[in-house]
Amino acid sequence: MNLFEMNINLFRSINDLGKQFTQLNPAMAFIAEYMVVALALGILLFWFTRNRTHRMMILCGFMAFAAAEFIGKVAGKLHSNHQPFAELPDVNKLIHHAVDNSFPSDHTILFFSFCMTFFLFHKRWGILWMLLALLVGFSRIWVGVHYPADVLIGAVIGIFTASMVYLTLPSLNAVKRFLAAIEKMERAFFPGKDQSKQY
C-alpha cells in the first residue's frame, strides 16, 4: 500500500465515524468551523492581562503563524489536492467549504502555531491548548474537508515555526523595546497597577 492509498484509507476510517456516531456530528462541525473563535478570545485575554510574558507569547504566536503560512503556501505549490468531498464519492461532508487546494490545512497551521507557542511558554496548561489543536485537526477530517496528510503537514509546519520563533524572538532587544513602549502608552492612558512582568 502506498502513501496515497494510506492517506485515503485513513481519511475514510475517520470520516466514516460520522456515519456511525451521528450524534457527534454537530459537535465536530462546530469544532471544525467555530473553535477559531475560542482561539481568538484566548489571544485577546492573554494580551489584556498586561503581563509581558503573555504578550511576548502572543507576539511569538503571530510570528509563528505568519512564518507557517508562508511555508504552507510554498508547500502548496509543491503539492496540491482538492478537498476530499471534491475528489471522493460518498464523503460525509458536514460543513460548507469552497473547492481549492486543501494542502496543507490552514486551520491546522493556525491552531498549532499558536497552541504550540502557548505550550512552550506555559507547559502546564499549554498541553490543553495542544489537545485543542489536535481536536481541531481531527475534526477537519471528520467533517470531510481535509485529508489526514493535509492536517499532519499543517501540524508539523505549525510546531516547527512555533519552536523556531520561541528560540529567537524573545531575545531580540527590538521586541522587548516594542513591548516596553506599549506598556508606557498604556500607563499614560490607563493608569493603574502595573502588572507587567519582565520576560
From TrEMBL:
<protein>
    <submittedName>
        <fullName>Bacitracin transport permease protein bcrc</fullName>
    </submittedName>
</protein>
<keyword id="KW-0812">Transmembrane</keyword>
<feature type="transmembrane region" description="Helical">
    <location>
        <begin position="27"/>
        <end position="49"/>
    </location>
</feature>
<keyword id="KW-0472">Membrane</keyword>
<dbReference type="InterPro" id="IPR033879">
    <property type="entry name" value="UPP_Pase"/>
</dbReference>
<feature type="transmembrane region" description="Helical">
    <location>
        <begin position="128"/>
        <end position="145"/>
    </location>
</feature>
<feature type="domain" description="Phosphatidic acid phosphatase type 2/haloperoxidase">
    <location>
        <begin position="59"/>
        <end position="166"/>
    </location>
</feature>
<dbReference type="Pfam" id="PF01569">
    <property type="entry name" value="PAP2"/>
</dbReference>
<feature type="transmembrane region" description="Helical">
    <location>
        <begin position="151"/>
        <end position="169"/>
    </location>
</feature>
<keyword id="KW-1133">Transmembrane helix</keyword>
<dbReference type="InterPro" id="IPR036938">
    <property type="entry name" value="PAP2/HPO_sf"/>
</dbReference>
<dbReference type="InterPro" id="IPR000326">
    <property type="entry name" value="PAP2/HPO"/>
</dbReference>
